[in-house]
Fold this protein.
Amino acid sequence: MGIEQNMQQYNNIETKADDYFHILWSKIDLRHKACFFAAFAVGILTHLMMLTNKLPNWDDISCTPGVGGGTILGRWLQQYVHGFFSVWSAPAMNGVMAILFLSLAACFVIDIIGLRTVTASVLTGIFFVTFPSAVSILLFMFLAPEFGLAMLLSMMGTYFADRPLRRKNGTRAGAFASFAFGSILLMLSLALYQSYFVLAAALLVLCCILECIDRCPGGEILRHGIYRLAYLAAGMLLYLLSILIRGDSISNYRGMNDMGSVTAREWLNAFLRDFHRVLQYFVTSPPSFITGFSAVLSRCVAILTAILLIAFFFTKKIYRDRMRGIFYILLMPVQVMALGLTYIMAPTTEHGTTMMTFSYVVLYLILAALSERIGTGCLADPVERAGRSVRRKVSSAAAVLTVILLVCSAYSFYRIDNMAYYRTYIASERMKAFYNRIAARLEEQDGYDYGQKVMILRSYWPDKIPVQEQGSGAMDYQLYDDLEGLATEDKLFISNLRQCYMNLYLGVGDGAMVTQETMDKYLDDPRIAAIPSWPADGCIQKMDDIWFVKMTDKPGY
């Protein structure tokens, strides 16, 4: 009897536990389920090569197990969350967590811009994990979870801050609490990585454009715009205040510290550069990794988006409400500026990195949001009866073509991502073999023993190193010049990295980094000049208790 009672109690507990999960699952909207699982599955598939191999870049080798720039780059929160992930940059841990965070961030995005269909929600999730900027996130594997978490916090903050505008029956206290909570989350995002502030800004401008299309009154659009601008300003001010309180001094990395010291002419150049770089990326001069059919698709996305925005202006008769019409027209250049806001936040930056331009993915989200509206016959004015069925058919056909274009664009990114990983895999294998040959030659030297200090002197730069020159055309070397974080052979052979690679991956050397002063001392030493260059006999010699490996006669490190 006692056993039967215990079993009954156990079954009751199990049923309650099942109910809790069932209740939680039932409360999640189908759009969010589809978005998350599509993003996570496609993310794992897209980045599978990166997750199942160790493909380090320069920072991943030299900064492991640290956090890189951290506080000197204004990213003070990194040091506190880094230990929750793999400090040794394990791909199956850090990479999967980064994809998880990106997938969750996409779920918040579909609510921020008010996507209503499963199709648009799925496409949003897919673009978040296939856009080439996601490759850059995972290439810096030692910080990939922090970058993903920064995006999630930015999207969560934007969702909560914008929530009172979507809820018509909320209280002022609730609205203030939501605004404050969102601002704090945005501040924390900035403290992890600053670029996703731009993504939040671009999404909020898109919200205002969609409100114009959805017949929101002009005065309400103005109030919403001021509110959203206040949220962005509050998040940024909280972040700057945190920097001030902590007493951190931000380095001038990629123009981060130049906002307060540029001239009016430099500001003007920054604004013009903003528009120019966005136009280049999508139309006139796409980055090196977007070529061929991918470049055609990119141009088609930009052109079709512009056409649809113009079409909505007339078919929805936005111009009838003068204020809404003016806002709609003004928001077009503001949207372009928001996409490239990085160039205004860092006004002296000439070219933003791939990670800094993640905000460009918003152009694809604009098209996804517009495809929803044309798919439901939004291009056909419901007031007009004549020709309504024809317009609805045209709208449906346009929506299908738009979705096809977006799917093809997502596939093109999937292809770009995988070819980029394969390229850096080849570079990694070549350099591993090259360093192994150095280690084997060291072991052949009389008197060499493990744990002794080793110093590799002289680089092939600016010329390609020998293992890169051979067959480099077949590996599409030039194709990935603009993809930030992708390590080609020359980038895996820079001076401070060689020592780290030998120590960390091959166990060669005493584990201590060679200082810049020591390098400077021996570069001009006449004894080093007399040593023949690699791979000649005698290119490895011991002096002052250090084994020197001289790679070339070219000057420099």
